[in-house]
């Protein structure tokens, strides 16, 4: 999420490019907008499928799994909630400063407004914080691991846990 100051500048640049007859610049702006939307949709819908191995799913005839099972994890499980929380947090000092006469709050409100110097870095940090926080509220890793344990599932064949790295090397003679 970008501050509204950057959004208004891009609208200004696209309008200025159109008025100046700079159609290459206008096409570049439109193309970057379309690519941004496609990238956002791709990440929002992306899913990491971790393959699961069940002890009871092995068959004696084929020697392999009957059907593959996956543990689906959304890449962006928190959605747009961190952006909403971040934007609300950035507006809070300005709202409180209107009702009080505290000089520190007024300085913070000026620095955190969309044209302020701290808008973008604070927004990025707050989005990252709320993303991790909201994901930790939604995903209970202890509960997921307990369910997998009860069902007899293991995830050791994922790239995250390479079995060759876990076992000590044996020396051959």
Automatic annotation (TrEMBL):
Pfam family, one: SecY
Top-rank taxon, per record: Eukaryota
UniProt-annotated location(s): Plastid, Chloroplast thylakoid membrane
Keyword Zinc-finger among UniProt keywords: no
Keywords: Membrane, Transmembrane, Transmembrane helix
Transmembrane segments: 21-43, 80-99, 111-134
Keyword Transmembrane: yes
Topology of the protein relative to the lipid bilayer: Multi-pass membrane protein
Family of the protein in this entry: Belongs to the SecY/SEC61-alpha family.
Protein's recorded name: Preprotein translocase subunit SECY, chloroplastic-like
Lineage of the organism: Eukaryota, Viridiplantae, Streptophyta, Embryophyta, Tracheophyta
